[in-house]
Amino acid sequence: GFFSQPRSVLIISPPGVGKTTLLRDFTLRVSAGDAGRPLRVALVDERREILPPGSPCFCRGGLIDLLSGYAKADGMEIATRTLSPELIVCDEIGSQEDISAILAVQNSGVPLVATAHGSSYAELLRRPPMKTLLDYKVFSMIFILSKENGALKTTCQEVAV
Fold it and tell me: Is residue 3 assigned to a domain?
């Protein structure tokens, strides 16, 4: 499973569906060992949205190195070079700088869990920066979140490696 052999995962949805909330919960759970042994997580939180200052989420005692306020590309580079993470978590990727940093992270062997705006795999393919990541097969799984009749719907697409 994911927790015995972490893989890079992308979570996509239109704005307001719950990507950041899901990412926050996932980060807290894997860092605290809720699904096995705790993983050392480097959380790159550029806009301080995943774990905002004063957040009560820190009371769980997980293994989180928080890089708050750093540009995503800078945070990923710092995490990879200095923190020895077992997993890097990043919200709302999509710029060319993000993509370059993610490719460097991939070369380091550290898995990444990230979110991006989008409603389908086909939509991601139409955006050159995201298409680059898909062409390089950075992510082994893509979760597509949507709302259907007010309920959250999750579709998982495995990517052939």
Answer: no
How many distinct structural domains can be found in the chain? Answer: 1
> Which is it for strands 87-90 and 141-148: parallel, antiparallel or unpaired?
unpaired
Q: Specify the length of the chain in residues.
A: 161
- The C-alpha atoms of residue 124 and residue 117 are separated, in whole angstroms, by 9
Q: What percent of the chain has pLDDT over 70?
A: 91
- Structural domain containing residue 50: 9-158
Q: What CATH code is carried by the domain that includes residue 90?
A: 3.40.50.300
Give the pLDDT confidence of 114-149 residue by residue, as tens digits. 999 999 999 999 999 999 999 999 999 999 999 999
**Alpha carbon distance 155, 143 (integer Å):** 6
pTM of the predicted protein model: 0.92
